[in-house]
Amino acid sequence: MDYGVPPGRGVSGIAVLGRKPYTACRRASCYANSRTAFDMFGAIEAGGTKFVCAVGSGPDDLETIQIPTTSPEATIGAAVAFLAGRAGGELQAVGIASFGPLGLDPDSPSFGHITSTPKLEWRNFDLAGAVRRALGVPIGFDTDVNGAALGEARWGAAKGLADFVYLTVGTGIGGGAVVGGRVIHGLVHPEMGHIRLPHDRARDPYPGICPYHGDCLEGLASGPSMEARWGAPASDLPPEHPAWLLEAHYLALGVASFVCTLSPRRIVLGGGVMQQAHLFGLVRAELLELLNGYVQAPEITERVSEFVVPPLLGPRAGVLGALVLAEQASIARGPGPAGPPAAPD
Amino acid sequence: MDYGVPPGRGVSGIAVLGRKPYTACRRASCYANSRTAFDMFGAIEAGGTKFVCAVGSGPDDLETIQIPTTSPEATIGAAVAFLAGRAGGELQAVGIASFGPLGLDPDSPSFGHITSTPKLEWRNFDLAGAVRRALGVPIGFDTDVNGAALGEARWGAAKGLADFVYLTVGTGIGGGAVVGGRVIHGLVHPEMGHIRLPHDRARDPYPGICPYHGDCLEGLASGPSMEARWGAPASDLPPEHPAWLLEAHYLALGVASFVCTLSPRRIVLGGGVMQQAHLFGLVRAELLELLNGYVQAPEITERVSEFVVPPLLGPRAGVLGALVLAEQASIARGPGPAGPPAAPD
Predict the structure, then answer these.
(1) DSSP readout, A228-246?
(2) What share of residues in chain A are helix, strand, coil (percent, to 5)?
């Protein structure tokens, strides 16, 4: 089945991802011995074109399906039916990593909502609330890119790192930053794709594709900007095409800015555009040139190939990150059986 | 006394700051009742030209002196003598907010050191260790700008905010970011002044003054860059001079980048250049234009004058931040009397 998913944003190219049935111990005593190994979590990576839903406890124990994004009722209904059916009443919590913009302030009435999306049926929709009411379990909730960052932190390219950036370069450009082991939220949430960059119009007269800013990072370096500039999708441009040097230049300018602002221990570059493996070497070389030895850290100056890296979880980063969100929600609630589903309102 | 301190960097224009003697209760029972109100902390704001040292517990209870920065032995000796003398054996901890670059990784042998400074006598000097050995108390240690951020967070313009940026615009440009209530360190520490910006050379042919990057934020908008571009110190340029619109443009580009990367709840702009109060209105207007409504937060779109603000602690931010570092070091160590000074090595 093909729902016409655009490249990038972490969910590109997913078929049905996992078939391995959930086989972990379900006995109550198992929870006491090793909560992480035997918990039963639900995960939803909510995209504008499809929902990827999963039940399990980690990459080696994950049953996954895709549901096309239609109306909230139909899509949530199918997601909830899958989660409830597969979990057999033992679901501990559900994590949702969603397209946005989102309400992430726990003290705001809009917490858990998709807010000002152009998709009218989903605008101001209480996504977290709908799933919580249907399943009666704690809900973890964050952006899709923060979800992917959490997944890579737990099982992927940022494993064991308390400070890193996950940047997705695809239909749009978005970043999730982990600082001191926690995802940055702040006032709203970061919008790393929208920083402004030096733009040499003599070298690159293309004005940029961002409807808000023109030539911000996303405006100059997203997949659609490449296609508009060169008249062909990025995936059709051969490695020797000048597009890639320019793309690496803009991405390195962005990465250098994040290095100076956040001082991360690693930068993970994912998304459809980064499927071009040759791009990593170009970005690393440009980054070293831009920093010019100012940030004195051998992790960058001597080991840049371990500093700017591809993701390890590929298209599963988002849904695995949603699983981490579920675990966090479960821990926040504390041990004990989940309550019954609340009455619908 | 004038030690020729250049403007900006948080320590400009300080004379002897505080004369109020330390009068708080010293009885042991007081500590149990309210540790914060009655603790006795030492603070050192270590600058390349002078050390500002203080003893006390907060802005209303602070005795302060200045010591010129000469050799480590003479400067540290005078600082330690002041702290020990004023504290009368009751010093709980000392905080140091220092010029850098610094070793901030607690697991590294260079922790507590000033590392690659051009000041030869101070290069690779174990500043935190020297003070700890002399006084025998826990030491808190961080950059000068992180210190200023902590001071403003505790008593100043960022009071009560868990997520904000303190940016100093003076001889250089540096930033301290607080995320989730903690100062960002990461791999090294942020170098926010060195992000690259769009630079329209038709409008501003000045190439920038940064020896590493030319036209990064610091290269285009620091005090020395203004003086080099316009042939007069920033403080001599009248408010109607075109310098200020250009300066506001660059600062707003920087602020917009930090908004997109960190999603702070406030940005505090300090340092010598920001003494020009008229600059704040220009920066705010440029910021709104640059963001162009993309970040949907009334805290920015409707209340920008509370979003981009001057510091409240003025030149005392750094030394008060060092006091916060002392308190943190004391809490990390736990209650109980300080041990005797360790034998010198």
Answers:
(1) HHHSS-GGGS-TTSHHHHH
(2) 40, 20, 40
Query: Which DSSP letter does residue A271 get?
Result: S
**For residue A101, cis peptide bond before it (omega within 30 degrees of 0):** yes
Give the C-alpha separation, A225 to A211, whole Å. 11
ipTM of the complex: 0.85
Q: Coil, strand or helix: which one is B77?
A: helix
Note whether A213 contacts B294, CB cutoff 8 Å.
Answer: yes
Q: Which residues numbered 275-314 in A keep a CB inside 8 Å of some CB on B? A: 290, 292-297, 299-300
- Asked whether residue B82 carries a pLDDT value surpassing 60, the answer given is yes
Q: Are A137 and A93 in contact (CB under 8 A)?
A: yes
* Cβ B165 vs Cβ B307: under 8 Å: no
Contacts A295 to B, Cβ<8 Å: 188, 191
Using only C-alpha atoms, chain B has a radius of gyration, in whole angstroms, of: 20
Global pTM reads 0.85
Chain B nearest C-alpha distance from A190 (Å): 5
SS3 category, A64: strand
Helix (H, G, I), strand (E, B) or coil at A104: coil
Residues 6+ apart with CB under 8 A from A334: none
Largest CA distance in chain A: 68
DSSP string, B150-171: HHHHHHSTTTT-SSEEEEEESS
What residues form DSSP beta bridges with B55? B42, B63
3-state SS, residue A113: strand
Q: Which tens digit of pLDDT belongs to each residue from A297-324?
A: 999 999 999 999 999 999 899 999 999 9
**Is beta strand B41-46 parallel, antiparallel or unpaired with respect to B50-58?**
antiparallel
Q: What is the phi/psi pair of residue A231, to 5°?
A: 75, 15
Give the number of residues written for chain A: 345
The model's pLDDT over B266-301, given as tens digits with 9 standing for 90+, comes to 999 999 999 999 999 999 999 999 999 998 899 999
CA distance B29 to B2: 42
Mind listing the pLDDT tens digit for each residue in B135-183? 999 999 999 999 999 999 999 999 999 999 999 999 999 999 999 999 9
Q: Report the 10 Å Cβ neighbour count for A34.
A: 11
Average of per-residue pLDDT values in chain B: 87
User: What is the distance between the alpha carbons of residues B281 and B276, in angstroms, rounded to a whole number?
Assistant: 10
Decide if B325 contacts B96 (C-beta within 8 A): yes
Q: How close, in Å, is residue B197 to chain A by CA atoms?
A: 5
